[in-house]
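Annotators were shown the component list below and the corresponding predicted structure, then asked to write short factual statements about the assembly.
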Amino acid sequence: MTEPTLRRRRIVTAGGALVACTAFQAPIVRAQPAKLRVGMMLPSTGTYSPLGAAITNGFRMAIDELGGKVGGREVEYFTVDDESNPAKGPENASRLVQRDKVDVLVGTVHSGVALGMAKVARESNTLLLIPNAGADDITGPMCSPGIYRTSFSNWQPSYAAGAVAAQKKHKTAVWISWKYAAGEEAGRGFKEGFEKGGGKIVKELWLPFPREEFQALLSEIASLKPDAVGCFFAGAGAAKFIKDYAGAGLKEKIPLYSAGFLTDGVLQAVKAEAQGLLTTLHYADSLPIRRDEDFRRKYAVTFKLQPDVYAVQGYDAGLLLGQAMTAVRGDVSNKAGIAKALEGTVVDSPRGKWTMSKAHNPVQDIYLREVVGEQNKYVSVAMKQLADPARGCKA
Amino acid sequence: MDLAASLLIQLLNGVQYGLLLFLVASGLTLIFGIMGIINLAHGSFYMVGAYLAWSLASATGSLAAAIAIGIPLSIALGLALEWLLIRHFYQRDHLYQVLLTYGLILVFEELRSMIWGDDVQGVKVPELFAHAIPLTDTLSYPVWRLVMSGACLAVAAAMYLLIQRTRLGMTIRAGAHSRELVETLGINVRLLFQLVFALGVALAAFAGMLAAPVSSVYPNMGGQVLIVCFVVVVIGGIGSIRGALIASLLVGLVDTFGQVFAPQVAGMLVYLLMAVVLILRPEGLFRRA
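Structure shown to annotators:
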C-alpha cells in the first residue's frame, strides 16, 4: 500500500507549487476586484431536474451576455443539487453560504426548498434570487430586503385565469385542485379573479396531493354542470387530468381554465386531448416580442434545446443580478443600495418588460394562450402588468 | 342527473379503480405471501410495464403488439432478477429484503431515466376502443376503462383457476406452507419460486401496460400505486388472492365514495379502513389461501 501515500505526496507538492505561483502573481491579481461568488442551488436530479437545467442555462446565458462580469466583478459559480428536498433545504443553503462563502444565492424550483433558502439568506444577510418557486408567502409575509423573485407568485396566473373565465361570460364555476399550498394559493387567485368579474364558484373540489384518480370528482363536476371549471395541476398529474377530462366527455361541454402549468411540458403526452385548451401564464409560444425571438434563437443555438418559461426566469435572474451589481458597483454588502436600485426597476425580459414590485415580485403581463399542436400559442394579453397583492408584506 | 344515477356512476368508478389495484396487488401478495419476500420494487415493475407499453407501442404502432411483446419481456426480467438477487434473500431477515428491493427502486428509476428520459409520455388508446359511451348529457365513460376492468376480471379468474385448480397451483400452495416438506417430495421449489416471482412481476407490468393510456407514463409512477397496494395486501390477508380481490374492491369503493361524500378526510379513509380491519381481524380479511 505505498501508492496512496505517494499520490498524496504528489498532490501536496502540486499544492505547494500553486501557492508559490499565486504568491508571485499577487501584486497583479490585487488590481482586480475579487470574484463575485454565486451559489446555484437547483435540482439536478429527480423530476425537476430539467427545470433546474433550464434555469441554470438561462442564468449563465444572461451573465455571459454581460461579459461574464457584473458590477465589474467576474462571476464564479458554486453549485449544489437541492434534490427538491425541503428537509435538506436549509442545510444545503448553509453549506453554500458558510463553506463556499457565496455572495449571492440563486434558487430554486420547489417552494418548500426555497422557503428554507429564504430563512438562511435572511439570517446570513445573503442576497437571494428566486428563479421559480411561486409560494405566495415568499413575497408576502416573508418578504425581505435581500430576497427577490424573477418568476411569479402562485396567485398571479390563476387570478388571470379566473378573470378570463369571467370575461367569457361564465356565471358559475367549479374549482378542482390538489390540496396543498400551491393548489390552495392558485384556488384563491382563481376565485378572486372570477368573482371580481361577476362569476361565482359553486363548489371547490380537492384531492390529496399527488393523487391521480380524478374519475370520482369528474363525475361530480358532470352532475354539478357549472358553466366553467378552473383547475391547478402540473406535471404528470396535469397530463392525466387533461386526459381524464377529455375522456369523460367534459371538454366539449364545460370549458376548462387554468394557470399555464397545466399544459407546460406535457403536450407531447396529451397532444390530442389538450387541443384548444386555454391557459394563462407570464410566458407563451410565439410571443410577438422581438426580444423573445432573439432570445429563443440564441438559446436554441447555444444549448441545442428549445427554451421554456423556466429558462426565461433564470435568464431574468441573471439580468437582475447585473442590474443590482451595476447600481452598487459590485458591493454586494450594500443591501439598502440594492433594494433602492431594484424596487421599481424594469427588467427587459424575453417575456416582455416587467417591473420589480416593492414586495420583490414581478409586476408583469399575464398572457392568454391556446394549445395548438404541441405549442402554447399566444392569443392575447389577459392581464396587463398584473401585480401580486403581496398580502402580509410589511417591508 | 338524479342521485341514483350519480351513485351508480360512482359505483362504476370505484369498481374500476379497485380492479386495477387488484392487478398490481395480486402480484405483490403472491410474492409476499408465498415467497415471504417484501418487495418494495413492485411499483417499479408497474412503471417498467407502462414504459414498455409506451416504447413498444411507439415502435410497432399498436398497443396490443406492445403488450404481446412486453409480457414475455417482463417475465424474463422477473426470472433474471430472481436468479441474480432475490433467491439469495429467502432465508434472510425482512430488513435485508427491504434494503435490497428499495435499492432496486433507485436502480430502476435511474435506468428508466437513462433509457427513456424524464418526460411525461402518452400512449394512444387502440382505435377500436377509442370512443366513449354517453352516460348522462354531460358525462361519458371511456370504453378503454371498461376494457381494463374486463381484463382485470379475466386475470382474477385465471389466477383463481391456476392456484386452486391446477397441479402447479397446488405445489405453489404447498411450497408456501412448508418449503422443506415439498422439497423432500422431489419438487424443485427453487424453480417454483422463480416462476412465482416472474408471475408477480408480469402481473404488475401488465397492470402498467393497461393503465398507460389513461394514466400517461412518467417517472416514479409506481410509488403511489405501491403504497395503496400494500394497504390492499394487508387488508386482504397476506398471500390471499381472494382477499386481495375483495380488499381491492373495498379500497376502490371507500376511496371513490370518500372523495364524493367526505372530501376533507378522503386521503385518510383508506388507511382508517386498514386500521379498523387490523383491529377486528389482525390477519386481514382472509388467511393465506
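Statements collected:
1. The first strand of chain B starts at residue 132 and ends at 134.
2. The interface with chain A takes residues 1, 6, 9-10, 13-14, 16-17, 118-122, 124, 132, 134, 136, 138-142, 144-145, 214-221, 224, 255-257, 259-260, 263, 266-267 of chain B (CB under 8 Å).
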